[in-house]
Queue: 2 jobs
Job 1
Amino acid sequence: MQEIAIFGRYLAGTSPVHRMDPRAKLLLSLFVLIVIFCAQSFWGLALCALFVAGFYVIARISLLQAFKSVGWLFFIVIITALFNVFFVQGGTVFFAWGFIQISEAGVYQAAFMGCRLSLLLLSMSLLTLTTTSLDITDAFEYLFTPFTRFGLPAHELAMMMGIALRFLPQFALELQTIHRAQLSRGANFSSSPLKGGVPMITSLVVPLFTSAFRHAETLAAAMDSRCYHGGTGRSRLHPLRYTSLDRNALIVVVAMLILVVASNFIP
Amino acid sequence: MSITFEGVSYSYHPPAKKTAQTAAAKPAWGNAPDSVWALKDINFTLEEGEFFGIAGHTGSGKSTLIQHMNGLLQPHSGRVLVDGRDISDKKTATRARAGVGLVFQYPEHQLFAATVYDDVAFGPRNLGLGSEEVDACVREALASVALDFDTVHEKNPFELSGGQQRRVAFAGVLAMKPTTLILDEPVAGLDPAARTDFLNLIKNLHASGLTVVFVSHSMNNLARLCDRILVLKEGEQFMLGTPEEVFAQEASLKAIGLGVPSAQRMANSLRQAGVALPESFYDTARLTHELAALYQGHHGSQDSQDSRDSHDSHDHQST
Ligand SMILES: Nc1ncnc2c1ncn2[C@@H]1O[C@H](COP(=O)(O)OP(=O)(O)OP(=O)(O)O)[C@@H](O)[C@H]1O
Ligand SMILES: [Mg+2]
């Protein structure tokens, strides 16, 4: 509970990746995800890894920071890999003990899925590492605006998302304070959940919820008093514009797609 | 119990590489958001039975410091000793947690139970007391914060007023019968009447034998209540001494964004205006007496020049 790592916390910077249009960044990261899914062999994954590493170099973010930002999400990678090791069967059997059996296909699959998931996580976290949450929600709003015609409240959705993102670290911090306060009142969160588990958990959750409501009310009042009335007729201080940076990024990602698809035909 | 800080330093961003400790642009006061140390080389001993004040500008590390006193935070260098034993030892930490009652900033935000009774009983129950003992603790704690047991104990804490909620939260800590009470800005956000009530309450608790650590922005409260005051500046120990010693240095306090108590400030301005005030530190009562004595003295001697001075001083006092 000392340090609460948050997936892809924004790292300020002035690199070309930072300066890209957030819409382009959002779309291209989705595109990169698809490209990574296209890779069917370790050759393809190696290519993807090369490209993703290249993106991090351009963004001037060290790999160490990158891995740190993904943090505990690697848990998912490990779990998936373990599942594959035990449940995918085929080829030579390396190890057998009762019903547990580890075979060649399982290990191969586990390694493949592990690498693929890590790459997916790393490329997603590049987006959040180089883009403020405000910019991401802005991008969402722009991209969804065409659908307002069909009744999709794009602005409101983006606003809600922005607020949620904004308050995540705040609540993490408050949870930490509440946790410490209850610890000072002798709470023992490590004891078995059967022994007084429910009051322990409510002693954290209830204050967190009341604080969420308190924040929501204050925020609503603050928005009201600034005459906020939703998205209609709102102008922008910083309209988003595509630049040559975004075009170059698009070229790179398309090249990545072509190379990865080509690599699938390497025997 | 006595709590000793020996060269305690703490960082929220532990320097993985020690070279990261470059001198960033120094803020006028408080801590730069990216400064490495939230606390740096703190040395003092909290004596038993003392009323200890901690002052410092926002972000100077006060809240961080007090969380070391019951082992919530462990120093990155240096040691915290409780009765001579290192708090990094689990047993000592548990003992410290039972003996030290820590009331956080805005403690009413940590209320959670459905009734006042259950909330106050949370601590004693965690200590593993039987239901009769718990009951006794709750009654005593509610009484010591001047809440009527019969009217409040079945109420939902969220139905109470802010000041009452804070009393309940206070009682929740007192119910654990701590010997040391640590209060982080206990009167922040209260109205003046509630503030006076609370300060009196704290004074009574101290008089009943508790060691009190009091974190505050208000120099008036610190001067009035404390035996000793520790002033923090950007996580470093800036001053430590009796209110007399600390508030004699108005200029250096001003430089880090703190003031001095109003009585002391007035005494200082009077001295600059030429009134002969012999002592270095004044609280309201002492200053009033001194000025009254001066005024009467001068009326006796009919010294025109000096009497003008003392008239001046009365003008000051009425403003
Ligand atoms: N949970 C945390 N994570 C990271 N940094 C923190 C955390 N809590 C405090 N800090 C930093 O540590 C420094 C000292 O903070 P602290 O809360 O101890 O100050 P304070 O003196 O209590 O201030 P205030 O008067 O505003 O309560 C600040 O620079 C703050 O930004
Ligand atoms: Mg504080």
Job 2
Amino acid sequence: MFHRESGVFKTSYAADMALYPLPIARWAVAVFAGLFIAVAPLTFGEYYLSLLNLCLVAIVGALGLNILLGYTGQISIGQGAFMSVGAYTAANLIVRLGLPFWITIPAGGLMAALIGTVVGIPSLRIKGIYLAIATLAAQLIIEWTINHVHWISGGVQASIEIPRPSFFGMPLASEAQIYVFLMFFVVLAIIATLNLVRSRIGRAFIAIRDQDIAAEIIGIDIFRYKLYAFAISSFYAGVAGVLESYYLGIANYEQFQLDVSIDYLAMVIIGGLGSVLGSIFGAVFVTLLPIVTRWALESGGGLFLTESNLADIIPHLRLVIFGGLIIFFLIVEPDGLARLWRNIRNYFRLWPFSY
Amino acid sequence: MMRISTTALALTVGAATSLGLAVTAAAQEKKIVIGVTCDRTGPTQIVGTVLCPAEHDYFDYVNANHLLDGYTIDHQEIETGYKVPPAVEAYQRQKQEGAIIMPIYGTPQTHALNERLEQDKIVGTTPGFGIAASADGQKYPYLFPIAASYFSQGAAAVQFVKDQLGGSLKGKKIAFIYYDNPAGTEPIPVLKDLADAEGFELRTFAVPPPGVELNAQVLDITQRYKADFVISHLFGRSPSVSIKEFKANGYPLSKVVGLVWASGEADIMAAGGWGVAQGYNTMQFAGAGDDYPIRQEIKAMYQKEGKQPPAGMENTVYYNRGLLNAAIEVKALSNALELTHGAQPTGTDVKKGMEEIHDFTLGGLVPPLEITPTDHEGGGWVRIFQVKGNGLVPVTDWFNAYRDTVWQQVKAAEKTQ
């Protein structure tokens, strides 16, 4: 938030390593966390909570892709497929063995990590756009497999209905309960990512992104760390897939197709590559923008158009506005919404006495 | 400072007045909310841009003629682009606005909303798509396919082929060409069962998405397999491509029957027009063509307002399906109002009203449905229309077939889900 750093004297390594070195920043984060964790589920209506729930699922997926694309610099358009691996793994465990969520969620993540590692193997030899095509192949192969192997997909419909997660025997059915459930994993994912990127592994990722040959020369095992990146990123994707399935009550093959991968790519690029906050901004932006533009058009459009025209025009106009806003934000700040936010913050840091 | 506060004051007063007005208006007017979702920009826009306006037209027609016992229908539409998360958002929004019945759009959306519909007691209709097993009203209480499922369509196609090939299928070769996704593969178990029962040979030919290149499959069917009849279960652009390819290979189109989503005028136009598609058999769950009184009345409604009828009306197949969906929902609502003696119905009332639909044909546009608490499909009725001259001509009456086999598969599908 807006605060100044004067009078900060770090006297220990722990103080230097702290995520938020200033007490005021810690308080600000705590207030925001309190608002979203405790106040929102109690005060927001069911509809607004359902919007937030969609955002929460997207945040986990976007964080995962950002580790791979933003921090390690490896392009992947297989995010949707990795999500489906997690979703179907969990769905099978739930339906066949009746396992609870605290087993199925890590299991879905681990299975996705395993498949993601295999998909990541070509990344040693191929880079950039070529790697993108290799992950595209993975997306298509996984889609095909789920569609055709009925042992995985549970029949010709390729969809497995799963019951609501239950917490000590209490099924989490209402939007508010699901919100708290999802929020727990989102907080976990955010904290894990923040700590990952300042660890040895995270620094290796960044070194590989910035210049892979230099990274290799200073002794980073590139192959191993690229595979780590794929595994960790796919783990997040798998968890996001399980969470989405729990939220929707079903694992369905058409939930995780190529357009979903593209949406996630859009989230991390718009939000800001290599930024945890950016992943959150991007996920929220891409999820809510179509909805917010529809609200705006619905309330404002009636002035100019008849109702039947409006029904036909809103969806198309929404796509135009959505595309236009993405281009606008990328031109204003190519480093994404996270950088835009930092610029605003920096401006106000010395306000009104900026030099 | 002064100016800001006056503006703020004006805004507050304005907002308060409009809110008050809205409240009183709602109190005076008896209103039923129907939550329409649609895909007008996504992969199935070819259907959605015709089908959804038809639903709105029918609801407008009901409102204009006061056909619903003093209630008006509020039919707000939310567009989803055939994506699942926006469909969930749309559902929550419409639920918040008090919707008690929803025409759902799309199979994956049906899967995602099924559990919520049951939990919130809101009726959803999924004519011609969705979950085939939801024909069983015991297992899926709030989901109503109301039209022939893919199981029923496959069975009816076999019946049609049997009649066309002289009453016996023994030793005949039938090719099933299908779009390679869950909806495309769904009829296969029914076809396999019937192949055993009727003694015909069945071979399946998958068309991988996006299904615009069918040369290899069609060559295989016409030259190597030499099928006696072809059942075509394709979506999107692929039906038109298949018609062109069969024509180019000299295969008589009168020996091809397309299931319901390979059967629109748009497909025939994209294949090169009526001339190219002569003889092609299309399966319909709502009557095709213009000869239905309700279509004339909707046109009259537009003319009375001094407007042209919408261009989508000429696409009679999809337009009439929209009319069927809307008409059955309105019929269910009026049944529900009878049950409640005019009091505001709930979703449960609408479900009961839906389960009492019979003898409702809308001038021949709707098949003789018999929706009961156990059979939400209403019997799985279809009718075959053939391309003749510049239009679709019915070649059969409404019929359904092999109900035992279909219900066996419904029960089997329930187990795996």
